[in-house]
Amino acid sequence: MSNPVRIGIIGLGRVFERYAIVLDGLVREGRAEAVVGYDPLPERCAVAQATYPGMRIAASPAEVYGSDDVDAVLVLTSMNEHGEIAAAAYEAGKHVLVEKPLATTLIEADRLVHLSQESDRLLVCAPHILLSPTYREMHRRLAAGEIGDVKLARALYGWSGPWWGEWFYRPGGGALFDLGVYNVTSLCGFLGSVKRVTALVGTAIKERPVNGVMTPVTANDNAHVLLDFGNEVYGSVTTGFTIQKYGRAPAIELYGLEGSMDMLGDDWAPRGFEVWRSEVGHWEIHEEQAPDWPWTDGLNHLVSCLERGVPSVTRPEQAYHVLEVMLAAMKSSAEGRAVDIASSFPAPDYSHEEDFVMDERRKHDTSL
Ligand SMILES: NC(=O)c1ccc[n+]([C@@H]2O[C@H](COP(=O)([O-])OP(=O)(O)OC[C@H]3O[C@@H](n4cnc5c(N)ncnc54)[C@H](O)[C@@H]3O)[C@@H](O)[C@H]2O)c1
After folding, report:
1. Looking at residue 194, what is its pLDDT?
2. What is the reported pTM?
3. Is residue 281 within 8 Å of 270, Cβ to Cβ?
4. Structural domains for the chain
5. Which of 151, 173, 264, 292 is most buried by its number of CB atoms within 10 A?
């Protein structure tokens, strides 16, 4: 692996600017280099070149993943393009980071998972929320049995919806793929594979302004999803481009037989967590330890895994599973029945990561 890791980027839209925050740090540390980028929109290429003056602009995605001086490709396009471009980049011999979902069909996602299983190159799939220090600390405490066996869980994420990118509102876009994907990924990381899904998924707002033009909405924007993890362990996800604001509702609520644990904030931007242990009898509040943690941290993780020669914490199989769950939710709603889930995935593997140690001085317990 070359040092610095040489990065090619396909899709230079809004999310590119968020990856650039992480990439800037890696470039400053001499650990990564922005080599080449591609976007069909010249104005987006101009923004990228202003950010990285040394970066070449390619004439096609193939020119990015076909470049000999690229080690890893970031696929940051609109969703329908993810599967095909990520597979082509992987087949071209590159490590790949792909934004969520990894593909919009199970056929494309299956191809990606199989490619990754036949190679030791990395395929890092967003969302990267299992990497946040808060998620990791909650995961560690759950595994240690702090609140006993979890039987019920609830997750919430939504907002009023993008005003850019018409593709968000067409099939292959939608609130489940764009927003629900976070909550489903979080709950699966905590509770394992889903066995069965029941859902209500619909389009509540039929027309929206996108880039100032009223645009018909043909993708879902409103969903309640029930997840059956087996053994009477149930979860729910509430998501939509139909939520103006929520108050202090936790992002994730986990109900164990010996206590409860909530993630505060959103799972892509945690604001600490709180734990109720029945034997203690009051809420223990843990302030956020990493308020600047970026949800584009998967890029740090990709580079760090390449440097250390270790696998990524999350496997592509989890991203496949989450896609299957979301597609099953749409099918359940359309057909008015529960839908079984065929896939499963290995538990997140934090064994190659340094322990994130809670800073006891910043932790304080509060009786509520
Ligand atoms: N914007 C966010 O807040 C956000 C947050 C997390 C994840 N994401 C994810 O990031 C991805 C991009 O979202 P965005 O908000 O940046 O959208 P965007 O519309 O701003 O950017 C997408 C870009 O992809 C380009 N593109 C389309 N087809 C392409 C192709 N074949 N090759 C190369 N480029 C192509 C478009 O021209 C556009 O510039 C989506 O998967 C989205 O779910 C977005």
Report:
1. 98
2. 0.96
3. no
4. 5-125 (3.40.50.720), 131-294+323-340 (3.30.360.10)
5. 173
